[in-house]
Structures are given as C-alpha cells and as structure tokens.
From TrEMBL:
This is Orotidine 5'-phosphate decarboxylase. Catalyzes the decarboxylation of orotidine 5'-monophosphate (OMP) to uridine 5'-monophosphate (UMP). Its EC number is 4.1.1.23. The lineage of its organism: Bacteria, Pseudomonadati, Pseudomonadota, Gammaproteobacteria, Pseudomonadales. The gene is pyrF. It comes from Pseudomonas neustonica. Residues 6-226 form the Orotidine 5'-phosphate decarboxylase domain.
C-alpha cells in the first residue's frame, strides 16, 4: 500500500512486540513507519517483514557510514528486504554514496536512497567541537549538494534548512525532515526543531515524527491532530 501522507512515524522501541503494539494503533493509509537502530538491532528483518505484512511502507533508518564496498553491500541487503527507503550518512563522502547508488541502479525494484546531512540533535557548538567551524545551514547545504551530485534521491535534514535546499536543489529532490515538534511538544534531545505545518511550508517532502506520536496517550489521535494542521 502506498500512502499519500507525508508523515513517517519513528518506531523507536526496544523490541518487536512493543513496535507492533504501536503499529496496531496506526493506519498504513495515514502514515509510513521508520525502523531505526534500536528496533532493528533487537529484532532484525523479521520486524520489517511484519510491518510490511500489515501494509506499512518501511523506512529502514540505519544511517550506514563505512567504506564504499561495505556501505553499498548493506544498502543492497536493505533493498532485498523490500524497504521503501534506506539511508546513509552523507559524511561518508562521494565514493561511498556513488557506490550505493550504483548498486541500487542495477535492480528493477529499488528503495529510495537518502543521505543524512547534519543530525537534527546538533547545533553550531556541537559542530565546532568536532572541527566543523561553520553554521549547520552551510554544512547541510554543502552535503546536500554533494548528495544530489552523487545521484541519490534526497537528504535527511532539519526543516529549518528545507527552504534553502528546496530553492537550491529543485522540486525533485526529497527533503526528509525529523526534529518535528508540534507547538506544545517537548523538544526532547532535538535542537533544530520545526512545527509540522512550518516544515511543509518550508518544502519538506516527508516529516519524521517519533515521540510526539509514540509517547502520546492516544497515538492515533496525535497523528490525526498533526495531519489536521497540514
Ligand atoms: O535519519 C533520521 O531519521 C534522523 C536524522 C536526524 O538528523 N535526526 C533524527 O531525529 N532522526 C531520527 O528521527 C527520529 C526522531 O524521533 P523523535 O525525536 O522522537 O521525533 C528518531 O528516530 C531519529 O533517529
């Protein structure tokens, strides 16, 4: 089933039963789901298959970052799972991203391939500490341009950067934006946050939302409330 909803719900749960309990409260026509490092490490491909069986398109968010051969092989393994989207870190560089694109291009059925620019949990001081002496916006633009040159489908970035990227990179480049927080929500460990409606206005293609939905008393209602603002 292919949803027209821009929402991707992050299923950050410790195990498959907890993730499936959440999925049971969601409708695959109203959102996609994201399987990340915690859930995949505990539960592996079986949980991806179980979510697909329920009709969800799955974003496998393992943020691969390694030498080109290793990363491309991991992306290939993700493609074998039939996931809708898979991601790598743009910081892995041109040859890594091109190897991933090349391995997917040989397939008839391939997932969308996106690259994480600068994590939404980081702000300027964090970048400085790891030797990047420029604003997040500038580094995100640099990595997004590189990602586009390498032939990937889009980037993961903050919706704060979406407007500039949309203008610079055109309408056909996917902007997947986590760090989404409805006005009344806690920021948690996120730093570069944006509300759902502002994110779409800025040009985001997909909004990744975790805790504001999964920690809500009524997750389905929290999702519908967000959709109603869009
Ligand atoms: O690649 C991601 O999905 C990702 C990139 C990023 O820069 N920031 C970010 O928060 N994420 C993921 O998006 C989700 C956000 O979850 P919440 O902060 O609970 O809404 C988490 O699963 C993160 O792993």
């Amino acid at each position: 089933m292919s949803s027209t909803s821009p929402i991707i719900v992050a299923l950050d749960f410790p195990d498959a039963p907890a993730a499936m309990r959440m999925a049971d409260q969601l409708d695959p026509a109203r959102c996609r789901v994201k399987v990340g490092k915690e859930l995949f490490t505990s539960s592996g491909p079986a949980v991806v298959e179980a979510l697909q069986y329920k009709g969800f398109e799955v974003f496998l968010d393992l943020k691969f970052h390694d030498i080109p051969n290793t990363t491309a092989s991991a992306v290939q393994a993700a493609a074998e799972l039939g996931v809708w989207m898979v991601n790598v870190h743009a910081g892995g560089g041109r040859r890594m991203m091109e190897a991933c694109r090349d391995i997917l291009e040989r397939r008839s059925n391939r997932p969308l391939l996106t690259a994480v620019t600068i994590l939404t949990s980081l702000e300027q001081e964090d970048l400085q500490e790891v030797g990047i002496d420029i604003e997040p916006m500038v580094q995100v633009q640099r990595l997004a341009r590189l990602t586009q040159e390498c032939g990937l489908d889009g980037v993961v970035c903050s919706a704060r950067e979406a407007k500039a990227l949309r203008n610079a990179l055109g309408d056909n480049f996917l902007l997947v934006t986590p760090g989404i927080r409805p006005a009344e929500s806690s920021a948690d460990d996120q730093k570069r946050i944006v509300t759902p409606s502002q994110a779409l206005e800025n040009g985001s293609s997909y909004l990744v939302v975790g805790r504001p939905i999964t920690k809500a008393e009524k997750p389905e209602q929290a999702l519908e409330a967000i959709l109603a603002t869009l």
